[in-house]
Design goal:
Layout lengths: L2 H6 L12 H14 L12 H8 L3 H13 L3 E4 L3 E4 L4 E4 L6 H4 E2 L5 E12 L2 H7 L6 E11 L2 E11 L6 H4 L6 H9 L3 E12 L2 H7 L6 E11 L4 E10 L3 E4 L4
Parallel strand pairs: 3-11
Antiparallel strand pairs: 1-2, 3-4, 5-6, 6-7, 7-10, 8-9, 9-10
Helix pairs in contact: 2-4, 3-4
Length: about 250
């Protein structure tokens, strides 16, 4: 019996309480995953193993494992079992305003792929958030952000053309957009605000991120302002839910 099994066997299920056994079992496994006892891509105990070890029905064991999979903490491989998911990306809402800074706790490489960049008229939604007139020119930049070569986020940035004239010619696809804005235009990002929403990926977003249409993703809209309060950028990010978790620091 390995260390993980020895730790797991110490779990006691309350058979007389109101909490279903499957829920208690999935909570115990989830805590072992959160504590790193079961690491990413480790195989979890099978339905039969849980059935024997905890003297629960196979249906109870199956439901416990299914719940963990449904919550995104594990994944199934046909014929092989249930494995711990790699929630490798922790996206911090309180981090500095750059993608690499927001992907915390990683020893992995981040890079970008430029999908398109162009100047166009602002829609009503974009103009409202950028605090400009509808139809004003904005520079639109869309990039896929990768972590260790895995597509993690689809990010679309909208910037006021009048604040960053000629940005498309100065843009460095692999470089930091905010660094370019600071170095080329002397604009310093002073503050930002974000909204976070759980949504389902549409066909285009799914194709770009290598997931299935309808998969759960985070939609993050961020407004970045200069030190004098001028709105510089609206960024809309689709962040994969299967490999990401969100961290918010409260004070």
């Amino acid at each position: 019996m390995d260390k993980r099994q020895r730790i797991l066997e110490k779990t006691e299920l309350n058979r007389n309480g109101i909490i279903p056994l499957y829920h208690q079992l999935q909570e115990a496994l989830s805590e072992l995953i959160a504590d790193g006892i079961y690491k990413p891509h480790d195989r979890l105990p099978s339905e039969n193993e849980l059935h024997r070890q905890f003297n629960v029905s196979r249906n109870t064991a199956q439901k416990a494992l299914k719940t963990i999979v449904d919550k995104g903490a594990a994944y199934r491989v046909q014929g092989k079992g249930t494995f711990v998911a790699d929630k490798q990306i922790t996206y911090s809402i309180t981090a500095k305003l750059s993608f690499s800074a927001e992907i915390i706790g990683l020893t992995k490489e981040t890079r970008s792929i430029l999908i398109f960049s162009r100047n166009q008229k602002a829609s009503l939604h974009v103009s409202r958030l950028l605090e400009i007139e509808e139809g004003e020119q904005v520079t639109t930049i869309q990039r896929i952000r990768l972590v260790d070569e895995t597509p993690a986020a689809l990010m679309t940035s909208y910037l006021q053309c009048k604040l960053v004239p000629g940005l498309l010619e100065r843009l460095v696809p692999e470089g930091s957009l905010f660094k370019t804005i600071k170095d080329e235009y002397g604009l310093e990002i002073g503050s930002g605000s974000e909204t976070l929403q759980a949504v389902n990926a549409d066909a285009y977003e799914a194709q770009q991120l290598g997931i299935s249409e309808g998969d759960a993703v985070f939609l993050i809209e961020r407004i970045s302002k200069s030190t004098d309060g001028t709105v510089i950028e609206l960024a809309k990010t689709i962040l994969r839910g299967d490999i990401s978790k969100y961290s918010v620091e409260l004070s």
